[in-house]
Model the fold of this input.
Amino acid sequence: MTTTKKIIPLTLVMAGGHGTRFWPESTKEHPKQYLKLTGDLSLLQKTWRRLDGVIPFENRYLVTIQEQKNLAQLHSMNHLLQENILFEPSSRNTAACLLLALAAMENQYEDLKNSVLVLLPADHVILNEEAFKNSLNEAITSAAQYQKIITLGIRPYFPHTGYGYIKKSLQGPIADNLFEVERFVEKPDFIKAQQYLTEGSYFWNSGMFVAPLAVWLEELKIHAPELMKHYAPFKELIKKKEDRKLAALYQKLPSISLDYALMEKSKEIYLQEASFDWNDLGSWDALESVCDKIDNNVMVSSNSRYYFKESKGNIISTEDGKFVGLINVQDMIVISNDKCLLVLPKKDAQRIKDVVDFLKSSPGDYEDLL
Done:
């Protein structure tokens, strides 16, 4: 199937998460997507910059939670219309976020088959921005042409156990670099991840999806009826700006991820292999592959005051200007701010969750640290 009508590219950036694996820098008051972890711009600001020349200013949307309103507005300034920042009335996971955005967009865009919505996380790192733009333009065109959901798959280069995977069909490409999807798979153990890498038909699930509004709506109707039964009144309440009734209805929506609600069930998904680098920054140790090293160590803050002796492979984040001295320290994570000091081996980066869980267990004593 081909399309001759003009494609209207849209995007929805999802930015409501808390990113606790980057504690103590990422907190409820200042989550990961608003941190400057890889340069002078926050992760959200870099996400917006990557869309320049691909998604027009007026066609960009952001969904987040009310508690992040000021941060979202600050880090989105000059990147989208302020009225296109959507706020969840309550936290109901990514499928509900999409429904909120679809209802707002359907009230504005009439050509649902050629209005193509790109779903993007707010907190990923992509260094080759031109390659990203090329891949995204290709995916938008394919989504409109074939009236399918296009997922951007990342070819794995090591057996990662922290990502979900997507298996492409072995029947051959639909078109150049475009394949049918056989299945989505959960995060594997190390042995399975090795098998996926060796087999060559598995890709990392980047969480980036592209589809016409009509396809999003139809597929949700088929695979997430419990969600979609609220859609018509939902859309009407948004149109009338009846926020109180909208909040009450939103609370009734199932709290379910988009992967579970739709992606793992739909038969209308094609996989496009991404031509760009990608890192979801799932933990502090992930910075090692996206940040320049200073004397064999990663310094997250712009800090020229340091002394390293027989120390390498460390990841250090401190307040700007704080002097850092390391002697005979290897492969550690050292995080210091005005409230916390965190030190742990790099290989145990995922165990930061243990500290966060401890703090949450006694919220009265540690609320200011979360």
Remarks:
- DSSP finds twelve helices and 16 strands in the chain.
- The chain has a mean pLDDT of 91.
- Residues 129-146 form the longest helix (18 residues).
